[in-house]
From TrEMBL, chains A, B, C, D:
Keywords: Plasmid. The keyword Ion transport does not apply. It comes from the Archaea. InterPro entries: HotDog_dom_sf. Residues 117-136 are annotated as: Disordered. This is Acyl-CoA thioesterase.
């Protein structure tokens, strides 16, 4: 039984639009930052796996739904649950503010050799590092 | 028979990652900029409809697939085709570099009163302004 | 004797360039985020003072020197020291990584009525909230 | 007698804050984009000089003054004038909207070997390419 990875994103004044709500591209920044924080947390930071292990997890698809706007000062709890495939991983996100879902969706990522020569199996140690956070 | 709206996005050095390819959040910036340019082109800039007409086209869903990376200096042709609903519009995107699809997807937008009190029909003049670009 | 406000900025993969170092605009994002965090910390978040108090601290000048590049994964300690004027405040920054200065500089901000009708004295309660962090 | 390099930056809705004016970090993005466009215009794009010539023009200082806010839809004319040193170049910027200066300042850049082993003379061909835009 996994527990999702969780971080709190505080919406900043500089993220907000003329109606006081966060611009969509800034929400996407926060989602990508969450994936980066997760990979660092499990000991496989994006900047290390590419340089030291020769592989990456490039994004092949993203799908997000926006249910409620968020405002400057909001503390948004972003949960990330990895869903493990053989040669891919899906990062599933749910972001809540005051207990209500604000946005949710997923990033589909493949495991690929650096340099673009095709997909590969998720390394066993990466798989093991993600499993405690996975749904099952 | 509509023709999509088209703009060229030149990938900049400051958009690129350690492998020389554009970071995903920077691609999302370019997509949102395209929606903004389109609305300006048809005479309904986002900044005017909200202030002068009291409505907006907030994003409720986005879905993108990334097929090929793009690099600094690439001229990426981004096409936007509006698909018109009664109370919503879907902006469909196809981005090509050297004739090959680099990324594609859509933004689903609803037509909503400013201030969040529910959806409304797309105004007739906005619908007419979008139709020349619509698929049919 | 004040102690500067301090936060740690972790450089992310998505901040970095083809040489693995942070793009300058991403450093500026981190500096602005620091000013926003500071204002929240002292109880005067940017989003509140403008809406509830009718004033702001718009930037009139920024000056930064970049001494050493920072890389993905670096934990950069950013210190902010407010230097208080009568109708203005200067936010002075020093950012260090592994004890070495990476970048430093200042943002000169004026205290201004919202809506652009000129500068005003820093409110006393804001001044008092900043003083514990000020150099003297 | 040089003529500065000039580009028009259209402020987008997604650049603007709750008061309808551009966030400062978005202005810095536009300035950096201008430097990138200039280098491409003169035939020395940032992404080529680093990879093919083994040098770069890293930023060592930036100084900007913000005189008037800019709003979504504003067409901001950004002028760049290179001021040539022996081992450095200063990019001087003046940005105007409706003929009035909105912001201005400079980026001080050094000419450096890629990889960080010190400064070097500006290559002659780069100097020649910049001269037509230089103040004199």
């Amino acid at each position: 039984m996994g527990e999702p990875y969780e971080r709190v994103w505080t919406v900043r004044f500089s993220d907000t639009d003329p109606f006081g709500i966060a611009h969509y591209p800034r929400i996407v920044d926060a989602l990508h930052e969450t994936s980066d924080m997760f990979m660092q947390e499990i000991g496989f930071p994006f900047w290390e796996i590419s340089q030291e292990r020769g592989f990456g997890l490039p994004l092949v698809e993203m799908n997000f739904e926006f249910e409620r706007p968020v405002e400057a000062g909001d503390d948004v709890t972003v949960e990330l649950t990895p869903s493990l495939g053989t040669r891919s991983v899906r990062f599933e996100y749910v972001a809540r503010c005051d207990g209500e879902v604000a946005f949710s969706g997923y990033e589909q990522r493949v495991c690929a050799h650096q340099g673009g020569d095709g997909s590969m199996d998720l390394p066993d140690d990466l798989r093991e590092a993600m499993e405690p956070y996975a749904d099952d």
